[in-house]
Amino acid sequence: MLDPKFVRENMDAVKAALEKRAAGIDLSVFRALEDQRLVLLRESEDLRNKRNVVSTEIGRLKREKQDADGLMKEMKGVADRIGEIDEILKGIEDKTRLFMLNVPNIPNAAVPVGKDETCNLEVRKWGTPRAFDFEPLNHWDIAEPLGIIDFETGAKIAGARFTLMKGAGARFERALMNFMLDLNTSKGYTEVFPPLLVNRESMTGTGQLPKFEMDLFRVMDPELYLIPTAEVPVTNIHRGEILREDQLPICYTAYTPCFRREAGSYGKDVRGLIRQHQFNKVELVKFCRPEDSENELEKLTADAEDILQKLGLPYRVVLLCTGDMGFSSAMTYDIEVWLPGQQLYREISSCSNFGDFQARRADIRFKREGKKGTEFVHTLNGSALAIGRTLVAVLENYQMQDGSVIVPDVLQKYMGCDIVK
RNA sequence: GGAGAGGUGGCCGAGCCGGUCGAAGGCAGCCGCCUGCUAAGCGGUUAUAGGGGUAACACCUUAUCCAGGGUUCGAAUCCCUGCCUCUCCGCCA
Hints:
Elements: H1 4-9, H2 11-20, H3 27-63, H4 69-101, E1 121-126, H5 139-146, E2 149-150, H6 151-157, E3 164-165, H7 168-186, E4 190-192, E5 197-198, H8 200-206, E6 218-219, E7 224-226, H9 231-235, E8 242-244, E9 250-259, E10 278-288, H10 293-311, E11 315-319, E12 331-339, E13 344-353, H11 357-362, E14 365-367, E15 375-376, E16 378-386, H12 387-397, E17 405-406, H13 409-415, E18 419-420
Parallel strand pairs: 4-9, 8-14
Antiparallel strand pairs: 1-11, 2-3, 5-7, 6-7, 9-10, 10-16, 11-12, 12-13, 13-16, 14-15, 17-18
Helix pairs in contact: 3-4, 5-12, 7-12, 7-13
This protein binds one RNA strand of 93 nucleotides through helix 3 and helix 4.
């Protein structure tokens, strides 16, 4: 959420920034609501002040056994008027909040302006795609003959976009998870394992709600949501807290399954592991001071890249343009891994700096040493990495002509073997 | 699921027969004084958010004693609902 006060006082700048995102937000609605709100707020506060003063006086009179009926009658009228104003005020505040919750974040100045992914900027490339002396296969054509991924049985158990991993396939998931967590924690990230179901407040805190309800799986009675990413529970660890400056930056890494409806993606990536309703992911989440977040995004992205480098998987890093960025993000790098079976780079990680956007929604603040008041922290997160897609990349990049798959060096101790056949 | 207890400021903890309570006291923290070996002693001070105000402070004001409703001229204090925590019993991975 943007700062209402900031928006009020910087209308033109905010308007220009939002136009870059083509968000179609009409700030004049906000302005009108704010104008009304401030007038009513002042009236309400003046009346409350009067009530407080007179009520104290009534108390004094009563103690001295004097008559206060007149004042009490008068105050009854004041109380009624306060009630009326507050009701109107509440309506306006609800409208303002709803409006603000649906306004996306302002993009960082470094973000290229553009309407869709064609305007994204390739920042760097790492690794050289392997030269095959045979036609490389898609991961599903590798995995099914090996018997390590069973799409049909997954569909039988739960439906389309669910998969059963078996044998080395299941072991791969566990190996990748452990490899990533070990590497991340060695860099100072604290490992956490959070709840996989969260309440409405948490989903609102990170920005999934209210706008993206259709992307989420929901459980009724009690009303809970399955997390679409560890970002949600992990960022909400500090919801409503005031942190000390010397605690920052706080860095977490978490493995969790992720659940997504994938509404509106009918017909996209219907085969294979790329787009599933349930997938495993290891996530990085940071809380830091505002002046550190740009640098922390670079470090976080580098930490995610390091995993691909250690796995020997070629990739490129793309800076998303204004039109392709997520709702809550101020700046996002996507890391795309090379998939020889499909001859393209495919998103495997998304690393974002949210500025104070999530912190404001989730009320996560910090106090500077020796300074009055509090400030919102900046939050960041990124996948390190999406495990299913990493497995896809390993299978496709390390496939052999005979249908076997070489296990990357760093995974061998986790897999307990050096080849899957 | 059944029966109780409770949620107060950074922490501990009073208040809870409604008014003088943003809230005693203690601890921790900060400033100053005294003493000057560690320690102790004395005085003062220390919440967050919104609105107004200022060049910036100061300052004024509103709200906040888990959350949301209600009663009342007035609620931390009374009533209702929800959430959470703890203890005991039952059940269970």
